[in-house]
Amino acid sequence: MKHATRPSASALPDTTYYPTTSALRAQFRTQTGKRVTPHQWAVYDFTRTIPPGKVATYKDVCQAVGGSPRSVGGALRTNPFAPFVPCHRVIASSLFIGGFLGEWGKEHRTGTQCNRKLELLLTEGVAFTAEGYLQ
């Protein structure tokens, strides 16, 4: 995991229901009625371990749980447990802020959703350059 440039400011509240047993996970459905796959659960479980003030890359996550950086991004894009599963703490291997909620920053700029990701990380003490790269 990459370290923030200054200490963590605050953690997001852990108020979202998150099934932790096999039985509860088998019964869980997203708001659209879909099941969460075993790979998605693995991604969410690992992502929950990234503390405020730190980030991991999509590659870090896939090395920990299997799959590819793209499959990790796909799981996080549909994360039904945010902010309890802090998908905003996962960035690109180039240390670019990367995507958020299905939107990917273009040409070193961020879009509306990526700006929200940047705000969340700044609140936690993680700083980025004007071009969107981790400082």
TrEMBL record:
GO biological process: DNA repair; methylation
Gene3D superfamilies according to UniProt: Winged helix-like DNA-binding domain superfamily/Winged helix DNA-binding domain
Annotated InterPro entries: MethylDNA_cys_MeTrfase_AS, MethylDNA_cys_MeTrfase_DNA-bd, MethylDNA_cys_MeTrfase_DNAb, WH-like_DNA-bd_sf
Keyword Mitochondrion: no
The keyword Transferase belongs to this UniProt entry's keyword annotation: yes
Keywords per UniProt: DNA damage, DNA repair, Methyltransferase, Transferase
Entry's EC annotation: 2.1.1.63
Pfam families xrefs: DNA_binding_1 (PF01035)
GO molecular function, one term: methylated-DNA-[protein]-cysteine S-methyltransferase activity
Catalytic activity: a 4-O-methyl-thymidine in DNA + L-cysteinyl-[protein] = a thymidine in DNA + S-methyl-L-cysteinyl-[protein]; a 6-O-methyl-2'-deoxyguanosine in DNA + L-cysteinyl-[protein] = S-methyl-L-cysteinyl-[protein] + a 2'-deoxyguanosine in DNA
Residue stretches making up the Methylated-DNA-[protein]-cysteine S-methyltransferase DNA binding domain: 39-126
Entry's family note: Belongs to the MGMT family.
PANTHER family associated with the record: METHYLATED-DNA--PROTEIN-CYSTEINE METHYLTRANSFERASE
Protein name: Methylated-DNA--protein-cysteine methyltransferase
Organism expressing this protein natively: Mycena rosella
